[in-house]
Amino acid sequence: MQNRYLYSLRIILAAVDFVCINIAFIIAYHITVSIHYNFSADYYLQLLFVNNLLWVLNANFMHLYHKKTVYSSKLLFALRWKCGLVHLTFFAAYILITSQVKVSVALYLLFYLLLNIHLLCSQLTYRLVEPILKLKFRFKKPIALVGISETSDQLANFLRRTHARYDLKSFLDQHDCLIVNETPMSLVATCEQIKNAADNGINDVYVAVSPEKTSEIDTLLVEAHNQCVRLKLVPHFNESLPQLQRYNHISNLSVINANTEPFEEMNSRFVKRVFDLVFSALVIVFILSWLYPILAIIIKIQSPGPVLFRQLRSGKNNREFWCYKFRSMRVNDEADHKQASRDDSRVTAIGKFMRRTSLDEFPQFFNVLLGNMSIVGPRPHMVKHTQHYRNVIDKYMVRHYLKPGITGWAQVNGFRGETRETESMAKRVEHDIWYLENWSVSLDLKIIFYTVANIFKSEQNAF
Length: 463
Fold this sequence. Notes:
This protein is α/β, with parallel strands linked by helices. The chain is built from 15 helices and ten strands.
């Protein structure tokens, strides 16, 4: 799984360069005009367009903002200066074959003076803030490699060489890449290593699979799912695992991804996060800004206590977070243990209305802004329920591979509210996993549409 901070950094660097290049060009233009060099607005716009086009083409050709480039600040700034030099050369050639050369040269010299100042200042600034960024954010991808084989040994060597991209955390030995002893590992020992990885915050575990151990893959998958770990299988050369078809390539090695999910791709996670931020901001500004005070007054009148109810819920990778709702019940000691049921005596009059129309969930748009939740995803469960169902329902923890949602595929298909029977929860989990494996923007929009439509209908399980 790609790193979101480096992905964001690539976008920020590209945006800053693009903005500063245009600012430099505009300033150079106005200085040129102020010293009595006049040329047509059409020609200025033509030069501005060529200026941007050359930078975009050069940056793309040199992979200036590629993930491999951003991993190394030395390579990044070397390519930026090289890109600037190539840009200078081609822009000069363009000016020579166009008219108003005298005016263009003045603009050209001023622009490149300002561009060089930008490149120098940005390089110095980045070198100053890079240690802070690396300290605050996880720039490297933590992984563990379990088991020894010829292929896994090659993978380990590659990972050691690319230490800038991977944080090869160790939780048993002091070396970076965790490679458990060279003797064949038992199934129990391998499962224990997967659990150890999860306990140490490692979500990606690579396991070397020998031909005689392929029958144990299902057991490893169950353990990985239960620990919210993405399992990557490192087969021997020429080994085929027909039941798992998704291959990733690291260096020149094929690694089998045991999980199928669109959110392995950073682009998918980025699109979903942007959608969440925009949608939640619109709801907060245009709906919650007036709905919150109205509901707050009614809630306070009907029952003493806080306006908001907060509860620890299980989030992505089973990390706990505070989930917010409008308080729909009288203050009681059973909220963290007992689900709401039909004709629950704890629910207030306004609470019944809010729960039936899902208005009590609106404060969770703040959870979305904070990054704990998404607009669409599996509903977050109480920690007690997670601890119980993870040992009862197969693949229950897979739903925690992504952020929980305000609404979800299971909810719009009728699996919402109280779940007294394990079979009902299993169906909910089945829908959550289907959503995880089939996510798309259009699917999110479809779920949101169904959710809004259900607000105006009387849902059987809305109580």
